[in-house]
Design goal:
binds nicotinamide-adenine-dinucleotide; binds UDP-4-deoxy-4-formamido-beta-L-arabinopyranose; two-stranded parallel ribbon; globular; UDP-glucose 4-epimerase; seven-stranded parallel sheet
């Protein structure tokens, strides 16, 4: 009997890749998504990849009644992976109440519904943003949580606390908090990938849109940081490797292997890569020359952060496997496919 998993935000970037990996591992998946930042045809493309069409409910996690109906319509949901959220850091500064409502109330709704419907565990999409600029690198799960630089980052910190407090109050559920570093790339089939609305805020979609000619030039936001080449350093992790971490975490919860009712794992490669190094790696791995310039620093940017993934490697039994070059090639193939399909 396939175990049933609810994936909120499952037509989104990371969610869609995770649905594929869940299906590849024999799970029965139900997607809930309000399509505020994704398209319904992602369900078709997931089916093309796995041969299995996931159930899809066009529901807003803020709509408690509609969300409860999903649990009634699909009985026996054992676990939830909660991706659904608004995630644009800059937008969160302009529209904090939208972010606090969407990201916090959607989680509260799920936490209330879980014990009512026998759901055993939840995996929460957290972010390395909770660490701010770490005092020591690479950053471990024991690093202190720093004051959030944005309402978006604050919602991640608050949500982690809400989960801990809910479980501490006696809720019979378990949780794994996955703190992602910088997910990039696309599925090897180029059928699913990152589809940013409007002008991309993140580096890789802006870079590939520049490489294909949609954007005229990529601006490197500062080369006067205290790093070897002056540009910021991040831990860029292949989205499929990240997706696989969720399957491993769900196995851990449902197989009763957790050592605590709430566990936290840093999901990164453990390798810091600068913006300039990434640009050169893109050019070398795709053969495409990139038009870029050095510009001013971007307000709020962390200078350098990358993960110590030892705990996830040893305890969770997960490790990032894909090279930066293969990851960047997948991002480029996806951008080419978008042009071929007239989407971008
Ligand atoms: P995404 O925007 O592609 O996916 C989020 C999905 O959730 C979208 O499909 C959107 O339509 C849906 N959604 C939003 N609000 C909803 C609601 N109220 N009800 C139902 N569906 C809703 O983003 P992503 O990059 O896949 O990120 C997924 C999760 O991972 C988010 O929680 C994000 O904060 C977190 N995260 C992302 C990154 C990153 O760099 N992409 C890094 C760290 C953490
Ligand atoms: C990466 C690097 C930029 C664009 C953000 C959120 C984080 C998470 C991941 C949700 C930085 C530089 C970028 C450009 C550039 N999202 N850059 N030119 O800022 O590390 O993290 O996305 O959880 O919470 O903060 O990712 O891709 O925006 O930037 O030079 O046009 O690329 O300065 O050093 P970031 P990013």
């Amino acid at each position: 009997m396939k175990e049933r998993i609810l994936v909120t935000g499952g037509t989104g970037y990371i969610g869609s890749h995770t649905v594929v990996e869940l299906q590849n591992n024999g799970y029965d998946v139900v997607i809930v998504d309000n399509l505020s930042n994704s398209r319904a045809d992602v369900v078709d493309n997931i089916e093309k990849i796995t041969g299995i069409r996931p159930a899809f409910e066009h529901v807003d996690c803020l709509d408690y009644a509609a969300l409860e109906n999903v649990f009634t319509k699909y009985p026996g949901i054992k676990g939830i992976i909660h991706f659904a959220a608004s995630k644009a850091v800059g937008e969160s500064v302009q529209k904090p109440l939208l972010y606090y409502r969407n990201n916090i109330v959607s989680l509260i709704n799920l936490l209330e519904l879980m014990p009512r419907h026998g759901v055993e565990g939840i995996i929460f999409s957290s972010s390395c943003t909770v660490y701010g600029q770490p005092d020591h690198l690479p950053v471990t799960e024991e690093a202190p949580i720093k004051k959030a630089e944005s309402p978006y980052g604050n919602t991640k910190q608050i949500n982690e606390e809400i989960i801990r407090d809910t479980i501490a109050s006696g809720s019979p559920i378990h949780a794994i908090l996955l703190r992602y570093f910088n997910p990039i790339g696309a599925h090897p089939t180029a059928l699913i990938g990152e589809l940013p609305n409007g002008v991309p805020q993140n580096l890789i979609p802006y870079l590939t849109q520049t490489a294909i000619g949609i954007r005229e030039k990529l601006t490197v936001f500062g080369d006067d940081y205290n790093t070897p080449d002056g540009s910021c350093i991040r831990d860029y992790i292949y989205v499929v490797d990240l997706a696989k971490a969720h399957v491993t975490a769900m196995h851990r919860i449902l197989d009763g292997k957790q050592k605590d009712t709430v566990e936290v794992f840093n999901i990164g490669t453990g390798k810091g890569v600068s913006v300039l190094e990434l640009i050169h790696a893109f050019e070398a791995s795709t053969g495409v020359k990139l038009n870029y310039q050095i510009g001013k620093r971007r307000a709020g940017d962390i200078e350098q952060v990358w993960a110590d993934p030892t705990y996830a490697n040893n305890e969770l039994g997960w490790k990032a496997e894909t090279s930066l070059e293969d990851t960047l090639r997948s991002a480029w193939e996806w951008q080419l496919k978008l042009r071929e399909n007239g989407i971008q």
